[in-house]
Every structure is written in structure tokens, then in C-alpha cells.
Design a protein that fits this description.
It is built from 17 helices and 9 strands. It is α+β, with helices and mostly antiparallel strands. The strands form 3 sheets. Strands 4-5-3-6 form a 4-stranded antiparallel β-sheet, sandwiched between helices. Helix 1 (2-11) crosses helix 4. A hairpin with a 2-residue loop joins strand 8 and strand 9.
Length: 370
């Protein structure tokens, strides 16, 4: 329970339906953890309703998260620790999300290596409404294959069936709460057999509901696409048609924010646009904050974005993006005056003194695997 609390505290997050924040829970964490442990031991703990939060997506739609209370998140994280130890050997080499020792950049590198080794055709797809369409009964059956403790299984079932406040989905509804620390692990357990089935025949790289299959020929790729669809249907899932395509490595594939092609991994067009949206929002000309404060606000965006895209081999795109960022700061410093006045108000030496660095400057200081 203490390890679970540390994990929840580290990940932060918004309050649930009870309005209690991470800081509120932390003021009496020791006593609260003891109470939670006793409630679980005596089987008197029951999950509270989830709070619905809508997150905007790049395509203009919204993704619904179901946020548990802080207390419930601690329980979810504790259950996840136990389940991970039981099912860790189920997560094969094709699964990269929420597996200790692996991350999104490892998945990008594997796609790049396989393509350069001769796998010139790719199938890229997403699983349609993945977390919302997981069959709960099938999921519990998969857990029961390794867990004989009925009390523990009932605890997991209660978490999975937690309802969202104000929404009535019915007793037989599908899905697991996206927003719980437990859901990503349950998703990996649910797709473990899918990974093994596809991984025996093809090079599969899956990160949560995003996946790429690498093949040697177009015929093999088209056959693999049909196999992916059939294997997902066997699990009660389906592919997202608008995100599914068969393409050559020459044309590139968008995967986890990268565009992977013969030129090597580089930020996709959408990733660059999202970076520009964030910087643009922090450098509005009508803002009255001091320039130094604006620089301090955009640098976490620059650092975080550059660190994630540190696999980029070609720096020309990052060089131009750095120039664009400087132009935004120039416009902010000059406001609506003559554009050249920025050199007097905030020359590059001054911006560097404030801590400003471009993505290209930061990338050259870190190796790809730092």
C-alpha cells in the first residue's frame, strides 16, 4: 500500500468525485493507508463512482477519462503491483507499453531497425475504442487462469465495474475505466494472447492500442492486415478503419508521434503542429508578462518535446522549428512595433541569458539513448 501511494503521488492527477486532492490525502497518508489496508483485509472496501473528464484530441474529438478518487487510485495501484508480478512473463517482446524496462522510444527503434533490415512493408492500425470495448467477462476469465483467490478476483471485478457518476452503462457493459492505474496492465493481460498469435508469424510492435506489423512484401502485409483483424475480432475488438493502412517504408509510417522512413525517425507533422500550438499559446502578443517569464514558461515545453524526440537523426527540421520559436519570441518582444526592434529589446544573447535554448541546441547535447 505504501509503494502504491508513492506511485500515485508521483503521477499526481486530478481529484475524483469526492474532491480530495493528492495533497489532502498526503496530510494523513499513514493513517489512511492503514485504514485502507484494514478495509481490504476485512472485505469492507468498495470503490467510489468515477468522475468523467473529457480530454481534447488532435483530430478535434474528445477522449473520455474516468478518474477514480485518490484513495481508490491507491487501491488500484496496489492491485496492479500484485497482478504485474503474476503476469509479467506473459508480456512478450512485442509489447512495449506499461512494461518495466521498455518505453515508447524502444518501440520506435524496433520499427526503424526492422525496416532497415529489409521489412519494407508495414501495416499500421489502432484498436477502435480499445479500453471501452474490452470484454469484462473474458478479461476475468484470463485473470482466473492464473489466480485462484476468489476474494482477489472479486476485488478486481469491483474495480473494473466501477461506474461513472451520472452515467448508467448497465451491468453487462464492456470496458475498463481509462484513467485508473490498473487499466493499462489489464489491457496488456487482455492482449497477451493476441501478441503471441501475431508475433509468431510477423514482426509485431504494439504500444497499448497502437500497433505496427512489418513485412517483407506487399502481399505478406495485406495478408497480415487480415490476420490482425481476425485476431482482434476473436478478442471482441476491432481495427479503426480510418487509422488502418498498408504502406511502404519509403513513404514513412506515423507511430507514437514519430514519422519513421528511410530518413530515420523524425517528429511527425502532427507532433510539430502540437508543439507549435503549445508555444503559440504561451507567446500571445497581447500578453503582458515579462519576456523572461515567458521564456521560463516555454522552456519546459521545449525540453520535454526535445527529450521525447531525441531519436531524431536529421536536425534540419528541428533547426527550422528552433527558428520558428525564436520568431515567436521576437514577435512577443516587439509587440506591434517595427519588427526589427526586437534586436534591441531582446537580442539572442539576452534570450540565452534567460535560459532559452532551441530544440536543435538541446538535441546536440544529448545522445539518442541518454
Amino acid at each position: 500500500m505504501e509503494a502504491a501511494w508513492e506511485s500515485v503521488k508521483r503521477n499526481k492527477g486530478a481529484p475524483g468525485v469526492d474532491g480530495e486532492s493528492i495533497d489532502d490525502f498526503g496530510t494523513h497518508a499513514k493513517e489512511r493507508l492503514w485504514e485502507l489496508s484494514e478495509a481490504l483485509r476485512t472485505k469492507s472496501w468498495h470503490p467510489k463512482p468515477l468522475r468523467r473528464v473529457w480530454i481534447p484530441k488532435p483530430d478535434g474529438t474528445k477522449r473520455g477519462l474516468a478518474v477514480p478518487c485518490v484513495e481508490d487510485r491507491v487501491v488500484h495501484a496496489a492491485v496492479a503491483e500484485v497482478l504485474y508480478a503474476v503476469f509479467e512473463d506473459e508480456f512478450g517482446p512485442d509489447c512495449y507499453a506499461y512494461v518495466k524496462g521498455r518505453n515508447a522510444l524502444d518501440a520506435v527503434e524496433r520499427v526503424n531497425r526492422a525496416a532497415r533490415a529489409g521489412r519494407q512493408w508495414m501495416v499500421e492500425t489502432d484498436i477502435k475504442k480499445f479500453f471501452d470495448t474490452i470484454d469484462r467477462r473474458r478479461l476475468m476469465d484470463k485473470l482466473a487462469m492464473r489466480i485462484a483467490d476468489g476474494s482477489f478476483l472479486r476485488l478486481v471485478s469491483a474495480i473494473v465495474r466501477s461506474g461513472v457518476l451520472g452515467e448508467d452503462r448497465g451491468e453487462g457493459a464492456a470496458g475498463v475505466p481509462q484513467g485508473s492505474p490498473l487499466s493499462p496492465l489489464l489491457a496488456n493481460i487482455y492482449l497477451a494472447e493476441f501478441d503471441r498469435k501475431l508475433g509468431r508469424r510477423h514482426i509485431l510492435v504494439r504500444y497499448a492500442d497502437d500497433l505496427v506489423v512489418l513485412c517483407a512484401t506487399e502481399e505478406e502485409a495485406r495478408k497480415a492486415r487480415d490476420e490482425v483483424e481476425a485476431a482482434l475480432n476473436d478478442e471482441g475488438l476491432s481495427m479503426k478503419p480510418e487509422k488502418t493502412r498498408v504502406t511502404r517504408f519509403d513513404l514513412g509510417v506515423d507511430f507514437l508521434g514519430y514519422n519513421i522512413s528511410r530518413r530515420g525517425p523524425e517528429p511527425s507533422t502532427k507532433s510539430v503542429e502540437r508543439y507549435q500550438e503549445k508555444v503559440r499559446a504561451l507567446t500571445r502578443r497581447h500578453d503582458t508578462r515579462p519576456l523572461e517569464e515567458v521564456v521560463q514558461r516555454i522552456m519546459p515545453v521545449v525540453r520535454g518535446w526535445t527529450y521525447y524526440f531525441r531519436l531524431t537523426r536529421r536536425t534540419d527540421r528541428l533547426f527550422h522549428l528552433g527558428g520558428w520559436t525564436i520568431d515567436r519570441l521576437r514577435g512577443y518582444a516587439a509587440k506591434h512595433r517595427w519588427y526589427g526592434v526586437w534586436a534591441k529589446v531582446a537580442p539572442m544573447e539576452k534570450l540565452h541569458g534567460m535560459g532559452f535554448r532551441t530544440p536543435c541546441q538541446m538535441l546536440l547535447k544529448c545522445s539518442p539513448r541518454d
